[in-house]
Amino acid sequence: MNESKERVNYPPARGPEARSKRAAPLSRMTDWAQNWIGAVLRPGDTALDLTAGNGHDTAFLYRMVGATGRVIAFDIQQEALQRTGERLHGQEFSCVTALSEGPPHSGTGVYLVADCHSRLERYVTGPVMALMANLGYCPGGNRSLTTRSDTSCTALRKALERLLPGGRASVVVYPGHAGGAEEAAAVRELLCALSADEWQVMELTAANRRAAPHLLLAARKGG
Ligand SMILES: C[S@@+](CC[C@H](N)C(=O)[O-])C[C@H]1O[C@@H](n2cnc3c(N)ncnc32)[C@H](O)[C@@H]1O
């Protein structure tokens, strides 16, 4: 595997920042997603970001799991991984960049994987406490490179299988762009099919804005 690794100081940005985050008005689905996920993550946990994009969620997950934890983040766009890496470096996080297919990772830190999230079993073998997927296209990036129903659902199915009891998943879907409504419906169907004995599934929508992003949430019972 072609891997470069750089270690820098890790700032424990949990207390005051987490408090101000909780106090902030929750007008965006991405904020709701982070609040939902952040409530269960602890230092040392493993978390997945299925769509690294500009790195906001990857950086958030790493703040939650800390230097003893692990975040594995996927994106098919090299530019997105680069932006995510810059965000991590800028905030003095550890960063490991896996730029080619390789064996599953077991160390700590952030792994930026340049591959389709539907192939996540190549990189994720153990259980995970949380997973985030912010679907659609990357703001500020190539808008034609959106996530797709088939690969998104494959990735989510595989990621949900790895979720520990007590673990949580968040998926932000965007019905407003081409293919987005179909993808949103497919993801919703996938999550709604999860057994109510084992899963709690919820949905958050802006009730008066049909094409606005909405948030699908799943929690594995137990833990
Ligand atoms: C809405 S953005 C993600 C935003 C990101 N979570 C953040 O915090 O900035 C969606 C990203 O999904 C990526 N993507 C699209 N198809 C993908 C796939 N099959 N596997 C992994 N990433 C994919 C796009 O390249 C894009 O960067």
Strand and helix layout:
Blueprint lengths: L2 E4 L8 H9 L5 H10 L7 E4 L6 H10 L4 E5 L3 H13 L4 E4 L10 E5 L14 E7 L14 H13 L1 E11 L6 H13 L6 E6 L9 E7 L3
Parallel strand pairs: 2-3, 2-6, 3-5, 4-5, 6-7
Antiparallel strand pairs: 1-4, 7-9, 8-9
S-adenosylmethionine (SAM) binds next to helix 3.
Overall description:
With 223 residues, this protein is of the alpha/beta class. It has a single domain, classed as Rossmann fold. 30% of the residues lie in helices and 24% in strands. Strands 1-4-5-3-2-6-7-9-8 form a nine-stranded mixed beta sheet, sandwiched between helices. α5 (149-161) packs parallel to α6 (180-192). The termini are far apart. Residues 51, 53-57, 74-77, 80, 116-117, 134, 136-138, 141, 145, 147, 151 line the site of S-adenosylmethionine.
Provide key terms for this protein.
223 residues, alpha/beta, Rossmann fold, 9-stranded mixed beta sheet, 9 strands, globular, disordered N terminus, binds S-adenosylmethionine
Q: What is the first-to-last residue Cα distance?
A: 34 Å
Number of helices: 6
Poorly predicted segments = 1-17
Numbering strands along the chain, what is their spatial order in the largest sheet? 1-4-5-3-2-6-7-9-8
The major β-sheet equals: 9 strands, mixed
Named once each, the bound ligands are: S-adenosylmethionine
Please tally the β strands and state the result.
Answer: 9
* Second CATH tier, the architecture: 3-Layer(aba) Sandwich
Shape: globular
Strand content: 15-25%
Element-by-element helix/strand order: EHHEHEHEEEHEHEE
Per CATH, what is the topology? Answer: Rossmann fold
Structural class by secondary-structure content = alpha/beta
Percent of residues in helices: 25-40%
Computed Rg: 16 Å
Mean pLDDT: 85
